[in-house]
Design goal:
The protein has helices spanning 4-10, 59-74, 110-116, 121-138, 196-211, 222-232, 240-247, 254-291, 298-332; strands at residues 17-19, 26-36, 39-46, 49-56, 84-92, 95-103, 141-142, 151-154, 159-162, 169-170. It is an alpha+beta fold. The chain folds into three domains: 4-103, Phosphorylase Kinase, domain 1; 110-252, Transferase(Phosphotransferase), domain 1, CATH 1.10.510.10; 275-332. The strands form three sheets. Strands 1-2-3-4-6-5 form a six-stranded antiparallel sheet.
């Protein structure tokens, strides 16, 4: 967390005008958005647009984060971090404070979005995230402090975006910032050295977090406790193999994890399609039975009874076939 002296130096009231020392741009503070170990982020107004302003008296931290955002900008097709708009210093009453201006990304965070919609959105958002993380890793960076609060879903077409790049670290170095629940070191499942697997561990924990919104504390720790948590939630069980592989560092890159989720999702959709088809067939058969009229003669009665037995046989055969197909798909999962 941010130390109190640093927070006090960077604490400003709504309405305060921040004027850049070098570029002379003026930003009016609207409200505080949040703070971390290296500064405070504010919602500010610049001309007629809303922007996010991060200030810190740690000039090295600001420089590092600015370099990360510049690196993000070079990754074509990636929607990871916000766009960098300005970098400057502000001469406040308490001395010079460095700040930078970035795009204000609006929308609910990851868990809020899923709470408003449905958990079926989770795999879609995770697939988007893994695609962007792969591009970030290929450029030599690890996001580090990856958690739902740092993932914003923008619209109208839902698209996941990462914010707060304060924890982003060059590969090979020690992770700068982390949150315990998403940190493999906390769970005794790895080091805090920045590598792609560190971020993928966090992605696995984010999937778990989707079904445990209030999270949970470490008790026994390790993979045993996390596997037990997965198996206690029936909707998490289909993701168990993927999650465990991410927690144990078995993925070399984000695309491998993405491929596994994509494959699993396709099989699940196929299974649901088979179930739908079986239900439709059974309903059609039942409809045929119900549409039959009362026979007027003994001969008609015998024909109807024979037809009913044939339909009954078809229903049983369909049921057996459906169970067999579902069994095959479940084995694939």
């Amino acid at each position: 967390m941010m130390n109190h002296s640093l927070k006090n130096r960077c604490k400003v009231r709504p309405g305060t005008v921040i004027k850049g020392k070098w570029h002379l741009n003026q930003y009016t503070i609207l409200k505080e958005l949040g703070y971390g170990a290296n500064g405070i982020v504010y919602l500010a107004k610049y001309k007629n647009a809303q922007v996010a302003l991060k200030m810190s008296d740690n000039g090295m931290s600001i420089t590092s984060e600015v370099n990360v955002l510049k690196s993000f900008a070079k990754v074509q097709g990636s929607a990871l971090g916000p766009s960098l708009l300005d970098v400057d210093d502000w001469m406040s009453n308490q001395g010079q404070i460095s700040f930078y201006i970035m795009e204000y990304i609006q929308g609910p965070d990851f868990l809020t979005f899923i709470g408003q919609r449905d958990k079926s959105w989770m795999p879609i958002l995770v697939l988007q995230l893994l695609n962007d993380l792969n591009k970030l890793h290929e450029n030599g960076w690890v996001f580090g402090d990856l958690k739902p609060e740092n993932l914003i879903v923008t619209g109208p077409t839902p698209r996941i975006r990462c914010i707060d790049v304060g924890g982003t670290t060059l590969s090979g170095r020690a992770i700068k910032e982390f949150t315990e629940f998403y940190d493999r070191g906390y769970w005794g499942l790895g080091t805090r050295k920045a590598d792609p697997a560190y971020d993928l561990f966090a992605v696995g924990m984010i999937i778990i977090n989707t079904f445990y919104p209030k999270r949970f504390n470490r008790s026994t720790g390790g993979i045993t406790q996390l596997r037990e948590a997965i198996r206690k939630e029936k909707d998490l069980i289909p993701f168990e193999k993927v999650i465990v592989k991410s927690l144990q560092g078995q993925y070399v890159n984000a695309l491998q994890m993405r491929a596994d989720i994509l494959s699993m999702t396709k099989v699940k959709n196929n299974t649901e399609s088979v179930q739908t088809q079986v239900q439709r067939t059974q309903k059609s058969v039942q409809k045929v039975v119900q549409q039959g009229t009362q026979p007027k003669t003994r001969q008609g009665y015998r024909k109807k009874k024979k037809k009913s037995r044939w339909i009954e046989t078809m229903v049983i055969a369909t049921a057996i076939a459906s169970f067999y197909i579902l069994y095959i798909f479940q084995k694939l999962l």
